[in-house]
Fold this sequence. Notes:
The complex is a heterodimer. Chain A is α/β, with parallel strands linked by helices.
Amino acid sequence: MTEHELQFLLRELKTSQDYDGQIVGRLEFEAREATFAPLPPAVDPDLSADLADKGIHELYAFQRACFDSACDGYNVTVVSPTASGKSLAFQLPVLDHLLKHPGATALFLYPTKALIEDQLAKLRDMERCMARINTAVYDGDTDPDARRQLRKFGRLILSNPDSLHYSILPHHESWSRFMRGLTFIVVDEGHYYHGVLGSHMALLLRRLRRLANFYGAHPVFFVTSATIDEPGKFASQLTGELVQNVDSSGAPKGQQTLLLFNPKIVDKQNNIRKSVMKEALWLFQRAVQEDVRTIVFTKSRQEAELLYKYVRDAGAGKGQRLGDRVATYRAGYLPAVRRGIEHRLSSGELTGVIATNALELGIDIGHLDVSITAGYPGSVTSLFQQMGRAGRERDHSLSVFVASSNPLDQYVVQTPGFLSSGRFGTPTINPGNEYILSAHLRCAAYELPLRATIDAEYFGPQYTPLVEQLEADGKLRARGPLVVSTETYPHRFVSLRTLSDKRYHILNQGDGQVIEEADAYKVIEEFYPGAVFLHQGDSYLVTDNDHEQQVVHSIPTTQNYYTDAIIRSDIVVQNERGHRDYGDVGLSFGKVVVSEQTVGFIKKSFHIETEVGREYIDTPEISYETMALWITIPDAMLDRLKEDGYDIAGSLHAAEHLLIALMPIVVLCDRRDLGGISTILHRDTLKPSIFVYDGHIGGVGLTESAYGRFRDVVHLALDRVTECPCKDGCPSCVYSPKCGNNNKPLDKNGARVLLGLLLHRLDMTTGGGE
Amino acid sequence: MSEDGMVALLKDALQLEIEGWLFYRDVIGTLPEGAVRDVFVYLTEQEEKHQQFIKDELGRMEAGNQLDISGLSALKETTHDEVLADAVRSSKDLSQHEASAIHTGMLLERNSWEFYHAAAKKATQPDEVSLYGQLEEWEKLHLHLLEKAYDLLKERIWAENRFAPF
């Protein structure tokens, strides 16, 4: 929007009768001028003609730098926000090379189906190029005939990591032509691959590179990412090769204004602020009524649907109902529905969209003027991705961050320096994780016999001991200088993702149509019998779940409430595999069962959002085995905390958050790969206990490794909480972005004392009783 | 019943008592001072005593000792099943929140009562039978005192909203 429009909008906001000083901060991110570079002189004529058709006669400087580096054979990474031209940065060298070398092939990997479809549509606009390069999608929905065609003739393939893992690599012989010609591998949205998923991706790319090398190909990697710290280092870890970072300067960037919006306190006693939803609704309505194209990001599908319903119920705006000019967008909608919304957005038919983080990734939805983030999305990178959805290339854009009452949100809104520090964090991955590496070595051996002299280079220093272990376990067998697999298709035992692969159809019994899809966890949390859920603003009542057929039955309803599940989480020790006593402090490691069960639900009225009833239900429990470490706290320590006036539950909870936050430094993972439960009394330990578990079915060795280095973890946690200058807690110490209890109760100072006492015990005594 | 079976049953009992105690503890944090809150404080204390007793017994059994219920009488209830109803009668400003807390407490107590009833039948040692039988009685008392108050409160809320389904 123009500066004038922005000022007008701000004035409108501040003079509105609902405005009561909620804007508590304003951050300005300066504009950046574009710098241009000429198209490379020898670019294929069909490519330059296609570019000319799109009005592209010169490149941004970073696009040209990417072209030059890639053509010189360097692996490249480029970091830039959405809609800044990074797709063209990798398309250009790839298409040019494929046009000039008929035997060459390329693979583009995307994390989601929606992105693949979006990118394919963009490529198809390059008509001359596409007429000469056989380009297609290869994923789980590709039919068998098309797969055969692709294997024979495909040159540019758009796919995802799962298809690469399950289909392409294990059957590489059928892909030998493609592998021989493989010249470019593009990993789009590289920042998406962090933690355990990132470690899997890193090893998957090493397997791909190993096979390509076997066929004589030496592909160039191209990794794109949202803004992160140390992108070159991250891309190198991900691909296993040295990657050159191309500075994205040269891409134009309009000035960005970020308003920090803190709702007023409505309950002083409990420090509760006005609902983030209501404030976001108000801002969104104001903007859309002024015909300002606006996107709201919510933290959950339910919030997106509720907001849409409220907008729809709110009545007319400029002669047209507001509900007709806005839509919701989220995962769970059927692909055709999502495509329709994307089209209506990019064509300008819609003025506003309410979305979950499904729209954070670079799907083209045209230009928007304002972004509203309702609740802190958990990371600075994510918030900036959401902000990046607003504004044309050079225009001034407006973003609003609306804080909830959650202490984490309050810290962000009250500490502007947190967002303007220029620190984004680097995604953590660990391709040396023994559990994950073992799994990929089994797959690699099935794909091609392992050779110690060569393969240790791909898989790192853990290669030899792990191969020996797999031989001892009977999974691999030595045959002369080679090591071969003894298994049939071990890939089926190796899942790249943490969530359940089981998909449910949500059926509208009224017309027999499938309206949504959901995984097993979502069914437990949101589609239990008796649940009233919203789908595109309409209410549905869940009547029954058929877990065998994986179908949720629902009927349209006119109930004026929605439901929130009451979920019981539990952890039960199955067997203790290690135990050490440090005086009266116990440290254990072993197999646990983590379970969740919906035991009831709260009915909440629309708009007012007050509780109008509760029901308790009996639903199947969803549980999984994993590995955990746990510490038991002696009564003497709790007495000391009590005497000093600290909150016991808050101290345990805050200490749990700190251990989870710092453990990744010791075991190299993402904090989202870990889960935790702290309790004043646990049924198995009979003591106050803190559990930290691997958030992956079966465990991936994270807590096992931390068990061996627990003192280091406690030391780091204590340092963090001691050095943090905040008074009562902040995201840098005890607040967790994924806390299921909204970061309550937390006692930072109690945690500091507790960790100090724990460290003292660990230092005074050597653990006995292993 | 084998010793492992006895321990497993006691662990389940402990889990129930922890859940009940945590629930009542949370509820008293949200209620204003007054007679209703006092009853919830009492329930919290009782559940804490049950929990402590079971925890100690589990500790004894895991140390290789026999179940010892001689201390059970110290947990004796010191209330009656009208206590919460009386509190409701004497309190004017009660809301949906109190009703919801009482209702949820009823579900927890019913669950505990049914569990102890089944456990008493499953138990084979005389001390075990006595322990679960006694706990069953006490949870039944909690359930009844909650039910009586809930019925009263429900009637009041209906009357205030001029709702008369009869």
